[in-house]
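Researcher: Please predict.
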Amino acid sequence: MTAVEVRCENCGQANSPGARFCSNCGAPLGEAPPPQEERKLVSVLFVDLVDSTARADKADPEDVRELLQAYHGEAKRCIEQYGGVVEKFIGDAVMAVFGAPVAHGDDAERAVRAGLRVLEAVAQLDLVARAAVNTGEAIVSVEARSGEALATGDVVNTAARLQTAAPGGGLIVGAETFRATRHAIRYDELPAVDAKGKAEAVDAWLALEAATAPAERPLGAARLVGRDRELEVLRSVWGRAMDERRPHLVTLVGPPGIGKSRLCREISTLADAGGGRILRGRCLPYEERSGYQAFSRIVHDLSGILESDSPAAARPKLEATVGELMPEGEMAETLRHLLLLLGLAPDDDVLTGALLLFTARRFIECAALAQPTVFVFEDIHWADESELALLGYLAQHTRDAPALLVATARPELLDIQPSWGTGLGAQTTMPLEPLAENDARALAEQLVVGVDPDRLVDVAGGNPLFLEELAASIAERGGDELPVTVREAIAARIDALPARPRHALLTAAVIGKTFWRGILETVGPVDDVDDALAVLEARDFVWRDAASQVAGDAQYTFKHMLI
């Protein structure tokens, strides 16, 4: 047997057989740890150029290489902008995975939006591509040293087959992707695709364009249940803001689907009933991310500025709004600062942080004095630090105006801002808990007829969105299979955990809905098991039972059977 050279995992240098340290960088030459494998729900995007062989025929090789590099670069940029990972370039084809190694909660939507953006970017290069997205389970291998993920499974093969059936310049999706994204993307139904290696034709839809803003879900029509206490707090602070001109900040905190946006709709009803109005701004997880994006959207909302408006069309709208709201002595400065904030002024002008904060405060105060107003800052867990600082400043300094500030956030906000709200006198943070069993049953009875509501309640765990998605799935398909939207939301919560608590959670899930500390530590093994369990309990994944069936061992139970 001939000894083989040893290649350094750190720098790639080839070393003599038997060497223990790299001759180039000095790194130890041990064997790489085996990749970590996990079964995950992923969305796979395939993109391939059309007629690239004919284009390359008789073309200069350097020109072909330059064009391919530009295509690969644009595809990679678009995919990573939406949180995807480019797994490989195969000649003219690009394969990307969304949902691994980290799930985001809306990976199917991200994959479709990314695919459409890639097709647009490729067209700008005077090329034509076609694409497909498919969603399903895969075995994901993550390299311990590089963090790179490799997905394998039928979901990958089907995505590749669908891509070959897509029209030039078009993107098609499979059934699970369509179900998960039909609220966010407009589609045309296509004839089923005869895919090589598949026993039956594959249902397919042609993606036309985005129908909503990123990660935006339509609100259900069911009557609100189980939020009487939260509504009473909102009525109280809104009434006080109206009667005493005492602004207040309310932060609604909870996981996806728990009802934050639904409560904001109730706030809108409260405002309308009292002669007020509601203005909304939202932080986005991808696409056009910039500082102060939620506040900028509020200014757009009040001024009637549309996303499609050019700077020439937007500027007079803002001028008119400032002229109506602001005292004469403040008009010029306020307009100048807001034009800078909205990107409607020359780039060489600079707006300092202190001036922006004061301008924002005066704009909020004058808007509320013109008409009592609820200002909603949605999804601030995606906000930049500058926007969080602005919201804190507004909560602390806005005064003598009938204004209510409402922020919505996922629990991740408290990871990056553990002291959120402290030091602010007029603020309330309301964690939204899952619906109580009787309230969840009442909602289930509204959503579906002829199905035992307890079946939905047991599975949904008090999450209103999960109830709605499960009811829709039962009505459409009649089975108990979990919709992709529910599975994505749960996967995102799990992947948001730190590494050790996440490992503990996955290990505990193998033991069962009820598990014990000592067994978890033995089976894992789990480092710092007590710290890991404390994090899981604080994040509402598990709770510690008052009594244990195992003598001398602490007993825990999962709060949600889906996890």
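Model: The chain has a mean pLDDT of 88.
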